[in-house]
Structure formats: structure tokens, C-alpha cells
Fold this sequence. Notes:
The complex is a heterodimer. Chain A is an all-beta fold. Chain A has strands at residues 5-7, 10-14, 19-24, 32-38, 45-50, 56-59, 62-67, 72-77, 86-93, 102-103, 107-112. By secondary structure, chain B is mainly β. In chain B, 0% of the residues lie in helices and 49% in strands. Chain B has strands at 4-7, 10-13, 19-25, 31-37, 44-51, 54-57, 64-66, 76-78, 87-94, 103-104, 108-112. In chain B, strands 2, 4, 5, 6, 9, 10 and 11 form a seven-stranded mixed beta sheet that branches. Chain B is globular. The mean pLDDT of chain B is 93. The chains are: A mainly beta, B mainly beta.
Amino acid sequence: ILNVEQSPQSLHVQEGDSTNFTCSFPSSNFYALHWYRWETAKSPEALFVMTLNGDEKKKGRISATLNTKEGYSYLYIKGSQPEDSATYLCAFNSGGSNYKLTFGKGTLLTVNP
Amino acid sequence: DGGITQSPKYLFRKEGQNVTLSCEQNLNHDAMYWYRQDPGQGLRLIYYSQIVNDFQKGDIAEGYSVSREKKESFPLTVTSAQKNPTAFYLCASSILGSNQPQHFGDGTRLSIL
Lengths: 113, 113
């Protein structure tokens, strides 16, 4: 079973702070790295799917980077807002014909107003 | 609106009973997935299907069964052989491909009476 690690497990920030967290994954057999946001009482929502080493993707105040050689991805949130409070999940796809994702345990972000 | 519908939202099972969780999608996605979430753990893949009338075991398939008779539907049966069925179950679907994001339902919480 593949090992996908996310850190920190949880963090609290003040409104307006910028923050970032990490996803570590195996550096071999890389096909794609997914990021999802999961708000309480809602379904997980896809943020980014990253496939190339050095990829940077941005969606509003949220951006992500990818380093497949060393096996990590960072998710950045600029100027955090209370509505950014959620669990952020990363998931690793090692390819093959099955498109299976292995998920990390997530980082729980709480943004205090 | 296109999306994934899981029902019921809450489900209670007596010891020794089989129960079936429903998952329907109208996104015309070929691939469908079932995940289980337990406290402190990442989403774990139970079963997945890439085409009608075909499905594969995920990482924790023991005690579960699925069918894929229609493209839109991928029901999960939790059998009496599943010794620890209390969990939150998420269904997802996607276009085939490692760079395709998964779309999730709202989940079903199963509890044992």
C-alpha cells in the first residue's frame, strides 16, 4: 500500500494570514497528484490535478506546486478567509490502468475571524 | 444539475444483516468508486469500476460487494462478513484517466445497532 503523508494534521490561522501545507508521496511511478477541499457537511471538491514536475496551479487565492523528483506538493492559501476552513486532502495516482487514488489523512484548516 | 446522489444519508444495521448503499450519477462518467472513511484515517478504496459489468477490488474489499449493471449506478452492499462496518462511506465518479478529478457524493453514515 502506497504511503501519502500530509502535514500538519491541523492548523489554526487568523483571517488574513497566508498559510501552506505539505503532501508527501512516493517519487517513483508518479502519474498525478490531486488536491481536494472538504468542507464540513459537504462533499469533497476537486481543487487541482497536477501531472508534471514543476507544475504550479492557481485558483483564486489558492495555489499548489509539485515536485515529483523529491515527492512533495505544497498547497498555499493567501489571505485566508473563514470560508477557507476545511480539510484539505491530497491523493496520489501511480498510474497503470486502474486510475486508483491513494489519499492522505488530510490537513484540517481553521481560519478564525 | 449534474452530480452524484448517495442514499440514504444515515443507515442503521443490525448485527448479521446485509445493507445496500445507493450511488447514482448523471455525469456520464465511466469510472465509479467507493471509499470508506474512519476517524484519523484517509479515504480508503473499497471497490472501483471503469466500465459497466466490470469492477475491481480496492484496498479493503473484504466484507463488501458491488455491482455495475448500469453506467449511472454503482451500489455497495455491506455484508455480514464485514466485521467493523460502522463508518462514513463516500461514492465518487470520474472520466477515465489519471489526470481526471473525482466527483464525490455527500456520503452515507452507517451505524450498527
